[in-house]
Amino acid sequence: MNDYYADLGVARDATPEQIKSAYRRLARKLHPDVNPGPEAEEEFKRISQAYDVLSDPEKRRSFDMGADPYGGGQAGFGQGFSFSDIMDAFFGAGAAGASRGPRPRAARGQDGLVRLAIDLRDAVFGGERELTIETAAVCSTCHGDGAQPGTRRRRCEVCGGRGEIQQVQRSFLGQVMTSRPCNACQGYGEITSHPCFECSGHGRVRTQRSMTIKIPAGVDTGTRIHLAGEGEVGPGGGPPGDLYVEVNVNPDPTFTRRGDDLHASVQLPMTAAALGTTLVLDTLDGPQEIDIRPGTQPGEATTLRGLGVSHLRAAGRGDLVVHLDVRTPTRLDPEQEALLREFADLRGEDSPGARLAAPDHGLMGRLRDAFKPR
Predict the structure, then answer these.
(1) Are residues 128 and 28 in the same domain?
(2) Do 135 and 16 belong together in one domain?
(3) Residue 101, in any domain of the structure
(4) Which residues pair with 248 in a beta bridge?
(5) What is the pLDDT of residues 30-67, one digit of tens each?
(6) Which of 249, 287, 344, 365 is most deeply packed, by most CB within 10 A?
């Protein structure tokens, strides 16, 4: 029988870290990729077998007692020695990407996404809304354990409780042992003989939950509100994921939003535009007065500062832009027509001269220009 301690050049009372360090140093020196040739390959197999024995507490104990650590089987590189052990020796535990030991039953839950329709007023000022969602919650019977209360799980006979099955494959290094999750226990290492009747062993159930969410002032269609820890509870009663609420602002019959500004139009009689007047408008902030100066032209606009949408990530609000739609009367009684003709005669407009000029887009054109991207 080989002296595995001498093969690695360590004392018989060497610690696991000293054994791993010695193997790492020799493996880098003797690895076939670095030092090709049959002699180096044999040396690499020899130190790999030594590390396989001395890194396993049971095999090391058997070797120290003078017994065959492989139970009489033919020893060699790859017998009971996994590829992940080689990677661990080079780069540290877990370098091979395989999980060591059974995986935990509890896992983080998935994130959720729901859509919420709100009115323009809620987008301007913010508010609260009641939201009902379908989600996964911890099972009230087993409290996330997955087993029927009063029962026990048993160790998986297929993998021996390790949660993984080892498989020997041939490679250019010889025989390499790889690991995969055990199909019998799904990698948990234990089998639930009596799953919970309520959740069928999943540790969580589907349910509906109502919650009140705060809508920040200034949100717009497409804005997502992040609610940490309000998503689905994970399998096995694991921590919940997050919930994202995507906002959709319903169209408003009066106001049109452009950025954080609001736009609206008001009809103005020709006489009021000519003489000037004061209008009282119903805005989202309540009644507001605006002064119409004499001689106001169709398509002009007046701005009410700070009466628009709240800025989402800054203080203050946008503006309310009121577009003036000056209307010309289409039906006149005889008295009104006589007075209007007398007015035109006084202004010398009874026979106005005609001269071609650049076209005026009118009110609708000016409104379109106002909403064009700049």
Answers:
(1) no
(2) no
(3) no
(4) 117
(5) 766 666 667 777 787 888 888 888 888 888 887 877 77
(6) 249
